[in-house]
Design brief:
The complex is a heterodimer of chains A (178) and B (188).
Chain A: H1 26-35, E1 40-44, H2 48-56, E2 79-83, H3 88-100, E3 106-110, H4 111-116, E4 137-139, H5 146-161, H6 165-169, H7 171-177
Parallel strand pairs in A: 1-2, 2-3, 3-4
Chain B: H1 2-12, E1 17-23, E2 26-31, H2 33-45, E3 51-59, E4 67-74, E5 81-88, E6 94-95, H3 104-115, E7 119-120, E8 150-152, E9 156-158, E10 168-169, H4 177-180, E11 183-184
Parallel strand pairs in B: 2-5, 6-7
Antiparallel strand pairs in B: 1-2, 3-4, 4-5, 8-9, 10-11
The chains are: A alpha/beta (178), B alpha+beta (188).
The complex binds iron/sulfur cluster (SF4).
Iron/sulfur cluster (SF4) is lined by residues 46-48, 84-85, 111-113, 118, 142-143 of chain A.
Chain lengths: 178, 188
């Protein structure tokens, strides 16, 4: 029979489950879950989409970051990757898809065209998708290399880490509880 | 072969043919707008041009008549080609060729969308590249490359693209590589 003295610090719970319990904040837990399963909405509009496909394929493999689940339904996606030239006519569809995505949602402008209109200084092209929807990460390049897209996605992960998910998104609920 | 065809068009529509010419084995015949549809029908049904390659339009800004329609005809076995042109003044409309070649449908919609030339008897004349309600015709010579602002609430909008001194064009025919580089040249 062991007679070790239980220190008051660990007295709060059963020692059998020790090691299986983590203390954390709700925010941190939510952010951790969110950032590691970002489901992208591939908004491939032009040549950049080819690099987006390469990023998702075996050689670059964004499933290492939990982002391989490309959803072609806006209802199931978290991050819209705008990859390509946004013409004014297509801009309407992009906005509509964006509006259909549930919160929380993020947007990445991939490449020169999506960020600023790129080389298409013309009547037909929207000069940057940020004129229509809020962008979290801009990726330079024409087209950006897959590594650059991965870097952008990692930037987005760091951004998500820093948000106070509970406070921002469940504000009303928290106020009701208080 | 096409030369003989031009002769038979001249024979049948003597008053309608404004001009015809051959350039490097390309045959072009220019006819009046009034007889355009009859000439096209004759080309298809009698001369055997059963294949419409393309329809395009020209803007001779400053001239009168301002526009011109261009039809590229061929036979399916590619034995002969013929280009039919017709001048179109502003406010004039062109008879649709959709009843002759189904291929004319989208080509004519593009001409309507980009140049603003209306067609009569077209089955579905609406814009094809810009959205319905866009107030301009972008390929007209008096339309700036950067575009013009427009707004249709809840439908679409457009703005002016920043050209930063552009468009950036090359000077061809210059030996000097530095001068040939694409650069912003003064735009009037
Ligand atoms: S940024 Fe370059 S590669 Fe990407 S869509 Fe535009 S033109 Fe294509």
């Amino acid at each position: 029979m062991e007679t070790t003295e239980i220190s008051p610090t660990f007295a709060a719970y059963d020692s059998k489950i020790e090691g299986n319990v983590i203390f954390t904040r709700v925010d941190a837990a939510m952010n951790w879950m969110r950032k590691n399963s970002l489901w992208p909405m591939p908004m491939g509009l032009a040549c950049c989409a080819i690099e987006l496909m390469a990023t998702a394929s075996s050689r670059f493999d964004i499933s290492r970051f939990g982002m391989e689940v490309m959803r072609f339904s806006p209802r199931q996606s978290d991050v819209m990757i705008v990859a390509g030239t946004v013409t004014y006519k297509m801009a309407l569809a992009v906005k509509r898809v964006w509006d259909q995505m549930p919160e929380p949602k993020w947007c990445i402008a991939m490449g020169a065209c999506a960020s600023s209109g790129g080389m298409y200084r013309s009547y037909a092209v929207l000069q940057g998708i940020d004129k229509l929807i809020p962008v979290d990460v801009y990726i330079s390049g024409c087209p950006p290399r897959p590594e650059a897209l991965i870097e952008g996605l990692m930037k987005l992960q760091r951004k998500i880490e820093g948000t106070s998910a509970m406070m921002e998104q469940k504000k009303e609920l928290l106020e009701d509880l208080a | 072969m096409s030369a003989a065809d031009i002769q038979s068009i001249q024979g049948k529509f003597s008053n309608a043919v404004l001009d015809h010419k051959e350039f490097r084995e390309e045959f072009t015949v220019t006819v009046t707008l009034e007889s355009l549809h009859a000439v096209l029908q004759f080309c298809k049904e009698t001369l055997g041009y059963d294949f419409l390659i393309d329809i395009s339009s020209l803007d001779h800004f400053g001239d009168d008549p301002r526009f011109a329609m261009v039809y590229e005809l061929a036979t399916v076995d590619d034995k002969k080609h013929l280009r039919v042109k017709a001048p179109v003044a502003e406010e004039e409309s062109v008879p649709s060729a959709c009843d002759l070649w189904l291929a004319a449908d989208w080509h004519e919609r593009e001409v309507y969308d980009m140049m603003g030339i209306p067609f009569t008897n077209h089955p579905n004349l609406k814009r094809i590249l810009m959205w319905e309600g866009y107030p301009f015709y972008p390929l007209r010579k008096d339309f700036p490359l950067a575009g013009r602002p427009s707004d249709m609430p809840d439908v679409a909008f457009s703005g002016v693209a920043p050209l930063e001194g552009g468009p950036f064009v090359t000077s061809c025919g210059t030996d000097d590589v530095v001068r040939r580089e694409p650069r912003a040249r003064d735009q009037k």
